[in-house]
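Ligand: adenosine-5'-diphosphate. Inputs:
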Amino acid sequence: MALNAAPPLPAGLAPRARLRDFARGRRGLLLAVVALLALLVWTGARLAHRHYHASAYARAETALRLTVNALDADLARHEVVPQLVGDLDMLQRLVASPDDTGLRQATNLWLEEESAAIAASDIYVIKTDGETIAASNHRLGEASFVGKNFSYRPYFIDAMKGGPGRFYGIGTTSGVRGYFYSAPVFGRSGRIAGVVAVKVGVDRIEQSWRGGDHRVVVTDPEGRVFMSSEPSWLYRSLDPATEERLARTRATRRYADAPLGDLALERRQVFGVPVFRVAGDDYIAASETMPKAGWTVHVLLDTAELRRETQLAVASLFLMLGAAAFGAVMLIQRRAQVAERIAMQRFARAELERRVEARTADLARVNDRLEREVAERRATEAELRAAQASLVQVGKLAALGQMSAALSHEINQPLAAARNYADSAAILIDRGDTAAARENIAEILSLVDRMSAIGRHLRDAAAKPAARPGGVLLQSLLAETRTIVAARLATCRAELLIDVPADLPPLRAGPTRLQQVLVNLVTNAADAVEGGPDRRIRLSARVDGGGVVIRVRDHGPGVPAAIAERIFDPFFTTKGVGAGLGLGLGLGLSITANIVRDFGGTIACHDADPGPGAEFRVRLPIAPAEDMP
Ligand code: ADP
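Predicted complex:
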């Protein structure tokens, strides 16, 4: 029976669909991770920008504070110089007698020395009309301030008003930028008799600003660059200058003849930090005004470095996040794979269990059927055994019939002969020939003896077979057997040759049933040779191995191979009905085989050697000593 095919999988469990869902889910996850990564990097970049701007601004502020302090200190250092110089006796005398050349010369030399000592560019003394009468740079000839009139300079004007003066700008004589301090020199009368001025060069200060990571710019109140660590920015206005402002600047001649351009600076706020854009470059700017000097100091920090740092930080962040995301994706993927494998295994297990259940149910059904069949066979076998037992009985009856036929032949013939002898004896007695009559009577007695022998045989055949086979001497059965088959042999014109040694050991068998075996085999042989050229039948017996083999061999046609298997089956026959009593029933060999089996022996049919003919071999065990007859 074909086992049921496994039913199709439930749709929800189809692994291909699950894999598709899984792949779609993974793509979605990947997109989400990339989006998250981009958001994180963007946020990180903004934070880094903000942080670097704030820290750069803090740095710029620090630098600014230092710069302003240094500048303040430098200015303060020179601020008091004019007043101190003005108080000197020599100066007092000079302003009192400005035409004293000796005094002028002495003052020149002294101013020269002092100027070098305090690192000022120039110290000079101006008369009340603005003419310079002594200067530290008296040796410079034309470039010397001596003889020059500075009455137009604001610092002179301020000093002449009685207070200290200060001014910054390009020197009209030297063309050198500087910061000017002035103070009045009071005469003995207490009136202003002259002015002392100190010019401090700014190159030295600018020099100290160069080489740093930031730029320093100092602008005047008009927003024009007066000092700068970047020389190209000098005298240029941070914001576009108005005409009004320009006019004001020109009036002071602060910058002499220097060209006054614009820096075109752009101001912005980035993350709350002021940023100046100059000539395409961005600078973080920290600014502070110095009210005393009227300046505004700007410290500018180039953002290029800042940008690089930010980019580096963002790149590092990106790498870190990328590595983290990669790790996370790998982890998720790994977990997904494990989950998928577990799901597949669970599915496979469920599928296997389902199939096993289906197969088990099939097998249980097959098993039930087999059990039913076995029970039926057993019943059939029991019936068959019963049938066989009854057949044995039928076979016995058949044998009895055979014997009866033989008996009637054997008895009728002697009876007829005895009657003839008796008739003759009566005539002979009547004639008085008693001797001849006695001979006849002797013949009659002999015939009667023969008949009583047949009667004994009949009694034996009818007797119930011994329950247990005992020891039987084959030799003792041969004469009777020959008698029983005589009629059949005669009918078939067959000749029975017996070759059984006299010392053959007794066999474990029943005498009547063993004789029935011999009769059956010899009768079959007689049937086989009937009408044949060689009608000899040979019955022989030999000790062989642990038993005795009885052979019945004929020269008939033999048993065809096609039916050899079936000749021991009950009712198998090739003979037609009516061939004789017991013939054609197909029971002879079946009964014979059963009897031999009862004795614990075997029976087999072979081709006679040399052929043609059949040879039936019956192997029987030798009877144990205690069963000896
Ligand atoms: P029956 O003699 O009634 O046919 P048996 O069981 O004695 O039944 O024999 C079965 C068959 O075996 C016979 O019909 C015959 O074909 C075959 N057979 C038996 N003995 C011989 C033999 N000696 N030679 C050839 N065929 C035989």
